[in-house]
């Protein structure tokens, strides 16, 4: 039995046993890659097979979920997602599986089983599609009711944004400071942070700079998620294997003593520095908030 078939068999059994109920999210492509140790193509094929069997379906802002099978009233059609909702959900699933570069209107139309020109009746083009996708994924984890001081509120927003990028690495590529997408669910984070910082004493223009700095840290770290996923998919070599393969080159470059700090760091051993992106994100977030704390003290 192929690896994708084993994945399909297990998820199918979980659905049949009621462990995964209608509307509940099933493991994403990247979760399957991590948990089963398979390539992205294998994980994608498993989810595609489950969709073809009608067991799962894409849902905007959530991911792939167990399909609902509502009973129609006599003489009434069964309720279901609109064509636009299906298009956005399917586009998110495709981008999650293969990256943003692999997403096109033609491919999306094929996944939806419709001519490309029919898709254009519902979505004006890829720019609008990306806007709708961004709004959908940022809506997955809505901000809670405001609580705590400014630092707690900014940390909450940053970690929710990080979670979005973790689930959908392509989203970091879509976000921009020069031409930010007018996506209400993404804009809600900026509004949340502006309110917290202004209440703490920062003038609104300075609060906006601080909110952009926070968003830039999250996005800047998250850009590496998509890059690493694509590199691993293209080469079949994960991050640890890549670093191991660079040892000889590192030794040649540092042999002349030009990089003493690197040599001392290497001498500490492979576990001296944690290069996991989650660790780098949290370290940067803490230092950024420390700096804003000093700024607030000055402004007061």
UniProtKB/TrEMBL annotation:
CDD domains given in the database record: WHTH_GntR
SMART domains: HTH_GNTR
Domain HTH gntR-type: 1-69
Residues covered by the HTH tetR-type domain: 81-141
Keyword Chaperone annotated: no
Keywords: DNA-binding, Repressor, Transcription, Transcription regulation
Keyword Mitochondrion in record: no
Source organism superkingdom: Bacteria
DNA-binding segment(s): 104-123
Protein name, as recorded: TetR/AcrR family transcriptional regulator C-terminal domain-containing protein
């Amino acid at each position: 039995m192929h690896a994708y078939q084993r994945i399909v068999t297990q998820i199918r059994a979980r659905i049949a046993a009621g462990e995964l109920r209608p509307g509940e999210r099933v493991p994403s492509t990247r979760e399957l890659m991590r948990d089963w140790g398979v390539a992205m193509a294998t994980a994608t094929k498993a989810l595609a097979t489950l969709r073809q069997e009608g067991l799962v379906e894409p849902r905007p802002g959530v991911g792939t979920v167990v399909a609902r099978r509502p009973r129609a009233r006599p003489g009434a059609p069964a309720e279901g997602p609109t064509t636009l909702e299906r298009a956005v959900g399917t586009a998110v699933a495709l981008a999650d599986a293969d990256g943003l570069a692999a997403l096109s209107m033609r491919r999306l139309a094929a996944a939806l089983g419709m001519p490309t020109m029919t898709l254009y009746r519902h979505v004006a083009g890829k720019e609008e599609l990306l806007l709708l996708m961004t709004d959908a994924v940022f809506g997955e984890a809505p901000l809670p009711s405001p609580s705590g001081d400014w630092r707690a509120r900014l940390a909450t927003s940053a970690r929710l944004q990080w979670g979005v990028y973790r689930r959908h690495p392509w989203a970091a590529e879509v976000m921009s400071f020069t031409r930010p997408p007018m996506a209400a669910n993404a804009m809600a984070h900026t509004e949340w942070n502006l309110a917290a910082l202004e209440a703490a004493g920062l003038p609104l223009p300075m609060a906006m700079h601080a909110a952009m700095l926070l968003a830039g840290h999250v996005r800047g770290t998250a850009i590496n998620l998509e890059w690493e996923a694509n590199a691993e998919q293209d080469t079949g070599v994960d991050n640890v294997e890549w670093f191991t393969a660079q040892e000889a080159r590192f030794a040649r470059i540092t042999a002349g003593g030009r990089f003493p700090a690197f040599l001392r760091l290497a001498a500490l051993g492979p576990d001296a520095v944690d290069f996991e992106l989650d660790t780098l994100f949290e370290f940067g977030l803490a230092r950024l908030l420390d700096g804003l704390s000093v700024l607030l003290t000055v402004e007061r």
